[in-house]
Amino acid sequence: MLPLFSLFFSLSLSVLCTAQKLIVPGTVPLDTAGNAVTAHGGGIVHVNNTFYWVGSAVGCCDDTLIYSSPDLVTWTNHGVMYSNGVSRPKLVFSQTTGKWQILGQVGRQLDIASSTNILGPYTQAVTPFSPFGVNFTDFGLFEDDDGQAYTIYSADHNNLVISQLSADRLSYTKVMHQFNGNGLEGPAIFKDGNTYFAMGSHKTAYLLNNNVIYSAQNLTGPWSVQSYIAPFGTRTWNTQSGFFLTVKGLLKTTHIYMGDRWQLQAIQNSTYVWLPLTVDAVTKGVQATWQDAYSIDVKTGLVLPALGTKYEAERGIMTPGAAAYVATCPTCSGNKIVTNISANGSLTINNIVGRGQPQWVSFHYINTDGLFGDLELTDPVYASLTIQRNTTVSLNGATPLFLPQMDSNAGIVMSVPLQLNLTRGRANSITYSALDHQVAGDLDYIVVY
Ligand SMILES: *[C@@H]1O[C@H](CO)[C@@H](O)[C@H](O)[C@H]1NC(C)=O
Ligand SMILES: *[C@@H]1O[C@H](CO)[C@@H](O)[C@H](O)[C@H]1NC(C)=O
Ligand SMILES: *[C@@H]1O[C@H](CO)[C@@H](O)[C@H](O)[C@H]1NC(C)=O
Ligand SMILES: *[C@@H]1O[C@H](CO)[C@@H](O)[C@H](O)[C@H]1NC(C)=O
Ligand SMILES: *[C@@H]1O[C@H](CO)[C@@H](O)[C@H](O)[C@H]1NC(C)=O
Ligand SMILES: *[C@@H]1O[C@H](CO)[C@@H](O)[C@H](O)[C@H]1NC(C)=O
Ligand SMILES: *[C@@H]1O[C@H](CO)[C@@H](O)[C@H](O)[C@H]1NC(C)=O
Ligand SMILES: *[C@@H]1O[C@H](CO)[C@@H](O)[C@H](O)[C@H]1NC(C)=O
């Protein structure tokens, strides 16, 4: 009896662990103490089988924090490493000095703090300076296979520049390339085989746009003409570019796009969107394809999409007499979508199968309240832009939870996740409605993971 029981126990434990090892784009992971991870605009280094994530506490003080993880899912908070209002901090090691360094933007200059230990304490190493005399903003860092480190940044708010750092990572040796007049920000670089890729977003402050990518065989160029990194119209899945994490596994090297989904109303509530990239070996085309949830085996480098069960919105029940209705939608699942869902008329999906534990549920919606297409900071509608619909979700009649749904684009179905504690069996029902007297996002379908 006993061995059988323990076998069952260990099996169910491993199932549980697998369920918890998901990366869910559009969420804020909790650290091992149960607190929200605050590491925006940051970067990750992989040392001694541990991932170290440095980032900043946006919306308060831009303090620099470091988290560590063995698997990119379980994160331990090591606290504030440096407190000098650094934005977009990145970590880099110098073999010549044996020191770890946090580099980032302070004002319009580069700030560098050093430590003999990756987990600090860090102290300022140089007086912040302007590389080659330019106004320095939006900084990214890339370390090449040969140990040379490069920064990519917005120079004078107009040109992206790639410059090589000195071996001690305290000064610059030379400019490698300048992307003239493209006004890009949030830049990052990765390398796949012998090809370098550089990305950036357009200058629309915290509003999201269609980010672009270039490739080259040498950091000095020639660089390709830009193309979009995600399907046009998704505004890079409503994120801004920030960093590329390369996971060199035994079977595969996987590059992960790390973006920030900025929440304008409360910037500290911004979420993280990490998506694995596909790199076409022949064309060098790069795409960040949406995944509701996935896991990555950091040993093999393989990405495994999570398996879920789909429920179509048009199969749900609308409040009788309400204004919601099923509309035709060529780009939607089943070519149908439920629209005009106001607080007076909700949509309920019944017979949802649950496991009796918290599960991720993704809501696939369209919200075309905002702009159709890309935008410029000078756009007159910038100030009045409505960026989200405010939906509520109630599981089995419980207190409704808030589900913000940023504007998408005509025909573009986007997805936002919510964790719900479904009861075991097929008796769950999810009621989808709008907050106050607003209108909920048009619902295409949900997927329960
Ligand atoms: C990684 O391991 C080496 C060898 O044990 C050690 O010298 C180094 O300090 C470690 N680095 C970090 C960041 O833990
Ligand atoms: C950077 O920009 C500010 C304001 O736009 C300006 O006052 C300053 O002179 C600029 N600095 C450099 C180094 O270009
Ligand atoms: C990149 O170009 C520079 C000169 O522009 C050259 O010195 C260097 O060898 C090139 N690197 C590679 C990997 O081809
Ligand atoms: C931000 O998050 C806090 C804590 O979860 C929440 O109370 C607040 O309503 C959120 N603000 C917005 C605008 O979403
Ligand atoms: C949408 O709902 C509102 C009430 O919330 C109603 O006045 C309007 O007629 C509805 N639109 C359509 C096309 O049914
Ligand atoms: C929704 O219902 C409330 C109260 O029943 C009513 O006052 C309001 O006019 C309704 N709104 C719409 C848009 O039908
Ligand atoms: C949703 O809530 C935000 C923040 O409260 C607000 O700015 C926005 O106008 C709301 N959206 C709609 C469609 O009412
Ligand atoms: C989820 O619900 C089950 C009962 O269905 C309960 O035993 C469990 O404690 C709940 N878990 C959380 C995290 O709320």
From TrEMBL:
Residues 1-19 form the signal peptide. One of its GO terms (biological process) is carbohydrate metabolic process. Belongs to the glycosyl hydrolase 43 family. PANTHER family: GLYCOSYL HYDROLASE 43 FAMILY MEMBER, PUTATIVE (AFU_ORTHOLOGUE AFUA_5G14190)-RELATED. This is Arabinanase/levansucrase/invertase. InterPro entries: Glyco_hydro_43, Glyco_hydro_beta-prop_sf. GO terms for molecular function: hydrolase activity, hydrolyzing O-glycosyl compounds. SUPFAM superfamilies: Arabinanase/levansucrase/invertase (SSF75005). The keyword DNA repair does not apply. Pfam families: Glyco_hydro_43. Keywords: Glycosidase, Hydrolase, Signal.
